[in-house]
Here is the input.
Amino acid sequence: MRPKIFISKIIPVEVEKYISQHCEYEKWESEVPISRDSLLNKLESVEGLLTSGEKINEELLLSAPRLKIVSNMSVGYNNFDIVAMKERGVLGTHTPGILDGSVADLTFGLILSAARRIPEMDQQIREGGWKQGDDRKNFGLDVHGTKLGIIGMGRIGREVARRGKYGFNMDVLYHNRNRDTECEQTLGARFCSLNELLQESDVIVLLIPLTGETVNFIGENEFKQMKSTAIFINVSRGQTVDEDALIHTLASGGIYAAGLDVFHEEPLTSSGLTKLKNVVMTPHIGTATLKMRSDMAMLAAQNLVLALSGEKQNVVKEMHSESAIK
Ligand code: 8YV
Here is the structure.
């Protein structure tokens, strides 16, 4: 008998076709996200869950006694309660490696938007505010030839570094748990302490994963060290930054601007951030291109099908040592 799975997000037809060749499935078909209660109700007899962002915790696992695999359509997996999943022998997989370029592209979109104030300029024109040919109040900052500091030099960091080095002739600094000698050799990236990076960089990009240790990793102390002309970008997870400290820093001119794709509360509705001109925001769209989301869904589907047949692919690193799934 083919394993039964639940798909909690809309996926492309070709991915659904692939799944239909391997599994019995039920899917959530609405653009409106599934409620927690409805999700829990769907899980009683399933062995696999294809999802992204849903909290996989004790509560969910109790509602899913047959569950063997949760396949995330994302590289981040801070939605996994690793301890609870391991205790119940539920495997977690994710989609690393394919999405780095898309996130790096958006990162540069945010950098340029913040430095040249592109959304603000666009709004000015729409509101009939373009009164003279060349207005000093529209001047922004250069990006090319400046110093790019990357906090968290993983696969996405390397793509950001490459764009900075080759596209914008930037000097690359990085801070990471481990040194990345390849990046040092190929891109001339320089490893440095967090403090040095914060003090020297013109553009600071935060790319660390959210874990117990990285909550509010960048807070008041860190913002205080940045240049008043610095641009701060967060494309990792909102909780890695103390948002109140960021709002205060932006409002008081402690840094020049910020570009944010991620927030403490998502969707972001009311926040001090929305009242500031020197912040550019996107609604967590780092990987959100038509092609990338389709590729991620397909990879996540393959991860799930393989796991259900006893093979392993893209298992999250904390579960690498697990010998077998249930
Ligand atoms: C989205 C992401 O969270 O891959 C990640 O870690 O942040 C994004 O791709 C997600 O896939 C939205 O459904």
